[in-house]
Amino acid sequence: MRTLQEKPEASCIDASRMAQDELASVEAKIASLLRLKDELTQMVIACRQGAVADCRVIETLSAEKLY
Q1: What region holds the Transcription regulator MerR DNA binding domain (predicted)?
Q2: Which of 8, 26, 31, 46 is deepest in the core (most CB within 10 A)?
Q3: Per residue in 53-62, pLDDT tens?
Q4: Alpha-carbon span 37 to 58, nearest angstrom
C-alpha cells in the first residue's frame, strides 16, 4: 500500500487488486470461523446430557492444552 501511495499517478487497478486480495483473505477467515462455530455448537449440544467423563468438550479442551 505504501508503494502505491508513493506513486499518486499509478492506476487504481493496483489498489483494487490489493483490496480484492485482502477481501479474499477476510472471507476465508470468516469461513473458517463459521466452521469452528458449527463444530463448537455441535459439541455443546452433544454435551448437554451425560457425565463430565463422557463430555467431548472437556476432552477436546484438555487435549488442546497439551499442545
Answers
A1: 3-42
A2: 46
A3: 667 676 676 7
A4: 17
The dihedral over CA atoms of 12, 18, 19, 25, expressed in degrees to the nearest 10, equals: 170
CB 55 within 8 A of CB 47: yes
Kindly report, residue by residue over 21-56, the tens digit of the pLDDT.
999 999 999 999 999 999 888 888 877 776 766 676
Q: How far apart are CA 61 and CA 39, in angstroms?
A: 13
Grid look-up 467431548 returns 56
24 in the Ramachandran plot: left (φ > 0), alpha (ψ -120 to 50) or beta?
A: alpha
Structurally, the chain folds into a number of domains equal to: 1
Range of the domain at 23: 2-65
Cell numbers 470461523 label which residue?
33
